[in-house]
Amino acid sequence: MENNDWKDAFVHEVTELKYDKFSMVYQPIFYVSNQRKLSSIEALMRYKHKGHNINPDSFIAFSEEHGLIQSVGDYALRRSLTDLSILRNSELSVNVNVSYQQFFNIFFAHSVIAYLTSNTLDPTRLTIEITESAYIQDFALVNETIAALRREGVKIAIDDFGSGYANLSLLSKIDYDIIKVDRSCVSDVCSNKKAEQVLKSIKALSDDLSIKVVIEGVESEKQLEKLRELGFMYFQGWLFSKPKKIQDFL
Ligand code: G
Ligand code: G
Ligand code: MN
Prior knowledge:
Helices cover 35% and strands 23% of the residues. The longest helix has 17 residues, at 69-85. An eight-stranded mixed β-barrel has the order 1-2-4-5-6-7-8-9, surrounded by five helices. It has helices spanning 7-15, 56-65, 69-85, 108-118, 139-152, 193-209, 221-229; strands at residues 22-32, 36-49, 52-54, 93-99, 126-131, 155-161, 178-181, 212-215, 234-235. With 250 residues, it is of the alpha/beta class. It binds guanosine-5'-monophosphate (2 copies) and manganese (II) ion. The site of one guanosine-5'-monophosphate has 13 residues, from strand 2, helix 2, helix 3 and strand 4.
């Protein structure tokens, strides 16, 4: 049974801009050839109520439904970029999840650039992962924001590709640099020939489009081996690491 007693506190804290119960953790994305090289870290939000972690899918969806996602998303961006700036010597970049509603705020691209500037971070070290939880109606506005960000060097990733609304049609409607293949497309790659064929087509498609692909949800060496055979090079998943605190990347 879902326990909802965090919701009142959540609304209160977000509207009062009290973010002490919020934090960010980071899951590595690796480039794998003969060696494994850390390529980026994905920022994932955590929210605690009475000492317990609330499921991010729940509080993100709740924020989207209740007009709180702009504030919550702003926190994620600020926190992630401040955290990245303490790793300044590194080549590392950060991936921040952004709900597509945030793109409808005309100041969004400005604030992203302003946070990068105030942390003296190279914009190419930021990737924005567009998480699709609804059917995009207004592509013109979304594309305007995407163009403003990409002009500065910020990269755009389509998150959860192959699940929900992040489908094939999206690939021809917006501009992006990276596709993140949803873990549901990957889980049975070792046992299901069709799943393997689908991934093969995604590889061919991404080569045609000159797009980088990150495979999410890699849990076993066997999966990794199969995925490397198919030509993929960027991976994320429990095989490599669970999300960790920024201090663990210092
Ligand atoms: O690792 P985890 O259980 O935290 O992630 C659950 C989901 O919550 C993921 O699909 C991720 O896209 C989403 N999520 C996590 N952090 C953020 C965030 O800062 N902003 C948005 N919009 N979504 C997030
Ligand atoms: O939707 P998005 O890709 O932003 O969500 C990341 C989510 O995936 C987080 O909840 C994270 O904890 C989860 N995750 C990351 N790696 C793995 C994995 O290898 N297996 C599974 N089942 N979940 C994973
Ligand atoms: Mn993501």
